[in-house]
Design brief:
Bound molecules: beta-D-glucopyranose, 1-deoxynojirimycin
Helix content: 25-40%
Shape: globular
Structural class: alpha+beta
Radius of gyration: 28 Å
Length: 844
């Protein structure tokens, strides 16, 4: 355990917690100091079309636009050992075989470091005085991954060693690739020209794209056939070519094509050699696919791509351009609070994660295989909330893509494929919450940009341009989809599920293999497929939270009568909630298909749920009767733990056929009383909204990654990004034993948690939020704070904000001075003058 030196030990409550690295805020990097992280700690490369996942030991894969349909390199999910498949460099230094990233050979390194930065990763390994530093990134506007290897002989004697690269091609459709072996073992094709290996599987017939792997130097050999390189009975950890110290010049013909370069390298003491590898993706117009012989790949575009990054100077410039891109994006909102962890979350990592989730939705991570799900309607709309200030143009485009998959009656396809942008018919629609998220994303976009024009944009229904209507119409059908589908208590029908995919009130499934997400019990066929009794209180409160945005939009457009009508529906819904969904100390979760309460004191299990509470508080429901305070107290008592708020309590310990998937999970996991960090944010927002700044910050710091860093050995997933779920306090309850995984993170990276916690900390706690009429400042911070400063670019002007908190309160703005002049209220005007304005806010 030579890495033990690098671990920083903490003694807390008598327990020794371990860290596996540290934040380097100045460089916007997380520096990992041990390859043996408690789980692979990954990063994403790519910002537009070409994406790569890369772990701290160089595992992962690449794809173009769509992780399923355009998979470029192969990965083995859920493997033993974990994290198998990646871009691997092998060094055979006189019999000592090692990788700069430690894995897959796992020879102990003399030094190891992985720096995950904004869109790049630098992995450095050192063994026997040979140092290998590898920089991985996807340049801007480029369909390829650049890998620069810098080899340095730090010893006092000359060194000669064999150097190998390795990538394994995926045969494009990642789903087919890992199932359809009778066909695809016979399809693999390559071409090798100089130092470039072309992956042209299926190119001859129906594809117009190929991939290549190249290096900017002469090579001494190559392999393109996996079995020749690795050996049928060897593994990634001991490829036979690497052991032999030279490649076979193998030519793949079917089976598993790979790309591996081989080079014999001699370095004098102190000498450095730099090699630049590129993994590229090329699409060709069909009539230009081949050279005159009709067989050989037309390489014009590939050669242009190679030319772009074939020297260390060009690589340095590309990396610089990428860093500038990120500095620009992260410069839009920058805060300086008394808490470093908050600063690094807000200024760097949370914003970064928002961009990644925006790009990838829920498709490809170390928990999402990239072959199952495309973009989610509700997911992508929520992603916009955390990301819109960074690149509003892309948010606009995304919102239009999403809205285009809506049906004319306001229902929505639940998912769509990024490549085709078409709704996914296999999953279908009828998730009761989906339409409301569109109202929130469009409002967030307008608030950020002031671009009311988006409402006039003609947006198709069901991707059919002949039935396109202005975006405003999409908001209307979204709003009325809820209003027109109410149950016996005047609350929205739950349908297939609401935000919680696992509360399936029309499912009643007792047969293995039925999908809780798509199966509805035939007994509801006569009622149109769904129970006309099961109602979702969560959707009711989401409606009262999102709805006022629709009303504000209508008012702005001068459509007062429509605005009044919509407001009346909101008021009615609030009354219905108070009438039928207030349980005395918190709000109910639902009425099930038997008309029974779910999430009530009267229930045996699952007496209180998190989801409806935050939106109810933020909609002021029952506020005059103290419902907000009571609810916050109940949450603190029943749901809070040191690792965050559990989703429900107590956990279900048996299967409730009337509830569906939620009660299939062991207690403490996932939707059954796991800590769902996504809706923790709704409570953080609500507590801040209600003026309970200390309570809001407490919940924030229980789950924010930078705060979990010290307990990485328990938390396991990356300390720089949120995961979807953390094991809850009820882990093990269903088997009557204490669970082992309370506090353990899962499903990191691709989760709505990123956007919502960004909203929670920046808009609700720090209180800087874009509003229809300007930039609103309304902090709800820990009373202990003296204040904070922030810079925010907004609609073409920069706001230099200083907040002071002389009376040490949680919430309340006493005065706002802009450029030396006091203003009324706390909404800063949209100056749009390209200038910087100083803003002084005094709380009190
Ligand atoms: C998971 C959910 C997920 C859903 C849809 C369920 O099994 O628990 O978290 O959203 O599947 O893929
Ligand atoms: C994950 C899904 O991506 C999200 O849409 C859903 O709301 C949560 N699971 C809760 O079930």
């Amino acid at each position: 355990m030579r890495y033990l030196k690098a671990y920083i030990k903490h003694w807390k409550e008598g327990i020794c917690y371990m860290k596996f690295g540290y934040f380097d805020d100045a460089n916007k990097e997380y520096v990992i100091t041990s390859p043996r992280t408690p789980y692979p700690w990954i990063n994403y490369l790519g910002t537009q079309d070409f994406f790569s996942l890369i772990s701290n030991t160089a595992g992962g894969y690449s794809f173009y636009k769509d992780a399923r349909l355009r998979r470029i390199t192969r990965y083995r999910y859920n493997n033993v050992p974990i994290d198998m498949g990646g871009r691997y460099f092998y060094i055979n230094d006189n019999g000592t075989i090692w990788n700069p990233g430690w894995s897959p050979v796992k020879t102990e390194l003399d030094e190891y470091q992985c720096r995950h930065g904004m869109g790049y990763t630098i992995i450095t390994g050192k063994k026997n005085n040979l140092k290998a530093e590898v920089t991985f990134f996807v340049p801007q506007n480029y369909a390829g991954e650049v890998q620069q290897v810098v080899l340095t002989n730090e010893g006092s004697e000359e060194k000669t060693f064999s150097f190998f690269s390795f990538e394994e091609w995926c045969l494009w459709d990642a789903q087919d690739d890992c199932t359809n072996f009778q066909r695809n073992f016979s399809t693999g094709r390559v071409e090798v020209v100089g130092s470039t290996i072309y992956h042209k599987t299926e190119y001859r017939d129906r594809r117009d794209h190929f991939a290549f792997y190249t290096v900017n130097d002469e090579i001494d050999g190559y392999d393109t056939d996996r079995d020749s390189f690795i050996g049928l009975y060897n593994g990634f950890h001991n490829p036979q070519a690497v052991e032999a110290g030279k490649s076979n010049d193998s030519f793949a013909d079917g089976w598993s094509p790979i790309a591996s370069h081989y080079k014999k390298i001699t370095l004098a003491p102190g000498e450095t050699k730099t090699l630049v590898f590129i993994l590229g993706y090329v699409e060709m117009p069909v009539d230009q696919k081949f050279e005159a012989d009709g067989k050989t790949i037309n390489k014009v575009k590939a050669l242009e791509m190679i030319e772009k990054y074939n020297t260390p100077e060009k690589v340095a410039a590309g990396l610089e351009e990428l860093k500038e891109h990120w500095n620009r994006l992260l410069g839009i909102l920058n805060v300086n609070t008394p808490d470093d962890k908050v600063n690094r979350m807000v200024n760097i990592w949370n914003q970064y994660q928002c961009m990644v989730t925006f790009n990838l939705s829920r498709s490809a991570s170390y928990f999402e295989s990239g072959i199952g799900r495309g973009m989610g309607f509700r997911d992508s709309n929520q992603d916009v909330l955390g990301f819109v200030h960074q690149i509003p143009d892309r948010a606009r485009e995304r919102i239009i893509d999403i809205a285009s998959t809506q049906f004319p009656d306001g229902g929505c396809y639940h998912q769509y494929q990024p490549l085709t942008k078409k709704g996914n018919a296999d999953i279908g629609g009828d998730f009761s919450d989906d339409p409301l998220w569109l109202i929130l994303s469009v409002s967030a976009y307008i608030k950020e940009t002031g671009d009311w024009g988006i409402l006039d944009e003609m947006v198709p229904y069901d991707n059919d341009m002949s039935i396109a209507k202005p975006m405003l119409d999409h908001l209307k059908v979204s709003f009325y989809k809820i209003v027109n589908n109410l149950g016996p208590h005047g609350l929205p029908l739950a349908m297939r599920a609401d935000w919680n995919d696992c509360i399936n009130l029309s499912c009643f499934s007792d047969t293995p293999g039925e999908s809780f997400q798509t199966y509805t019990n035939p007994k509801f066929a006569a009622e149109g497929g769904y129970s006309k009794v099961a109602e979702s209180v969560m959707v009711a409160t989401l409606f009262t939270y999102a709805g006022p945005n629709y009303v504000a939009i209508l008012k702005h457009l001068g459509m007062d009568a429509e605005a009044d009508a919509a407001q009346a529906e909101i008021d009615k819904m609030k009354a219905n909630i108070m009438e039928s969904a207030w349980d005395g100390d918190w709000f109910l979760r639902a009425y099930d298909a038997n008309g029974e309460k779910m999430g009530s004191k009267e229930c045996e299990e699952g007496q209180i749920f998190i989801e409806p509470q935050g939106f109810a508080i933020m909609s002021d429901i029952g506020k005059d009767q103290g419902c907000d305070k009571k609810t916050l107290a109940a949450i603190d008592e029943r749901l809070n733990t040191q690792h965050g708020l559990v989703l429900n309590n107590p956990a279900f310990t048996k299967y409730y056929i009337q509830y569906g998937e939620i009660s299939t999970y062991p207690g403490g996991y996932k939707e059954n009383a796991g800590i769902f960090t996504h809706n923790n944010a709704w409570i953080i927002c609500a507590a801040a909204y209600a003026g309970a700044g200390d309570q809001a910050f407490k919940y924030y710091s229980e789950i924010a990654p930078a705060f979990t860093e010290e307990t990485s050995d328990i938390h396991k997933t990356e300390p720089y990004v949120y995961g979807q779920m953390i094991g809850g306090k009820d882990a093990g309850s269903d088997i009557g034993k204490p669970g082992n995984h309370f506090g353990q993170g899962k499903n990191s990276w691709l989760t709505g948690t990123a956007a919502w916690n960004m909203v929670a900390i920046s808009q609700y706690i720090l209180g800087i939020s874009a509003d229809f009429d300007g930039l609103k400042i309304d902090p709800s911070i820990p009373a202990a704070w003296d204040g904070m400063t922030a810079t925010r670019q907004f609609r073409g002007a920069t706001y230099d904000i200083k907040v002071s908190n002389p009376d040490h309160i949680n919430k309340g703005v006493k005065s706002v001075v802009v450029d030396g002049n006091a203003i009324e209220g706390n909404v800063l005007p949209a100056f749009g003058d390209g200038k910087t304005h100083s803003v002084e806010v005094v709380m009190g």
